[in-house]
């Protein structure tokens, strides 16, 4: 995959899957723009253009400095709020929806004109295995990510004529800082691994490879898809 001369915006690139995707795209020659609330040392090592951004707040002029043409946008922000349904407040549901769905909506509305000018652009969003496979205590995040899947398909249909592809990646549990409390002992890691048919949990690079593929010209005939990268969890027993 060659990303030379391609401008890619990654929102939520400070750690985990977003950081792994930024690192891979940098190696593949992309001109990267990373946006997140904080600029981490790992982001500084990549050397990408940095934009301070909180996608749960009005964007204002934060993205005005992007180039006139964008070839790809990746929206990575997410969270893991695992609680019994009766202990999840409506404010919790609202916060998950604002971060996962409305944040993506804001970013895409602010960048769509730039994507249209690429004459062949790609948007990558993120869902979760829990949006399709019912899992206890995942009510809030599964609801928000199911909305992301609906957004993915609707945008793919609306912008196909503009040659903008929109897809989503649906990971299972991945070894990121976001999942640290779920993987903070060898016993937890082993138990999580055994729930996957491939007998391991995901690594950020597993997801980054898929995101990079979807951004590349190699996936030019793929749009409107939800692609599970989940060790077989959503399809196999």
Automatic annotation (TrEMBL):
Residues 6-174 form the Ketoreductase domain. Coiled coil: none annotated. Gene3D superfamilies: NAD(P)-binding Rossmann-like Domain. InterPro entries: KR_dom, NAD(P)-bd_dom_sf, SDR_DHRS6-like, SDR_fam. Keywords: Oxidoreductase. Belongs to the short-chain dehydrogenases/reductases (SDR) family. PANTHER family: DIHYDROANTICAPSIN 7-DEHYDROGENASE. This is SDR family oxidoreductase. It comes from Hymenobacter duratus. The lineage of its organism: Bacteria, Pseudomonadati, Bacteroidota, Cytophagia, Cytophagales.
């Amino acid at each position: 995959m060659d990303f030379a001369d391609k401008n890619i915006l990654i929102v939520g690139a400070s750690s985990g899957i977003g950081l792994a995707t930024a690192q891979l795209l940098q190696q593949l020659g992309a001109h990267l723009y990373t946006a997140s609330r904080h600029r981490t040392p790992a982001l500084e090592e990549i050397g990408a253009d940095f934009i301070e951004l909180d996608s749960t707040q009005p964007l204002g002029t934060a993205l005005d400095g992007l180039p006139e043409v964008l070839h790809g946008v990746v929206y990575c922000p997410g969270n893991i709020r695992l609680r019994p349904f009766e202990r999840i407040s409506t404010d919790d549901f609202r916060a998950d929806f604002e971060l996962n769905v409305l944040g993506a909506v804001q970013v895409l509305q602010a960048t769509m004109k730039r994507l249209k000018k690429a004459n062949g652009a790609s948007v990558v969003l993120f869902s979760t295995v829990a949006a399709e496979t019912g899992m206890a205590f995942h009510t809030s995040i599964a609801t928000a990510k199911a909305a992301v899947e609906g957004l993915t398909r609707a945008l793919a249909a609306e912008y196909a004529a503009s040659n903008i592809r929109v897809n989503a990646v649906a990971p299972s549990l991945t070894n990121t800082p976001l999942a640290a409390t779920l993987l903070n002992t060898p016993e937890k890691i082993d138990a999580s691994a055994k729930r996957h048919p491939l007998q391991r949990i995901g690594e950020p690079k597993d997801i980054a490879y898929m995101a990079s593929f979807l951004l590349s010209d190699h996936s030019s005939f793929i749009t409107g898809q939800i692609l599970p990268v989940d060790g077989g969890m959503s399809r196999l027993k």
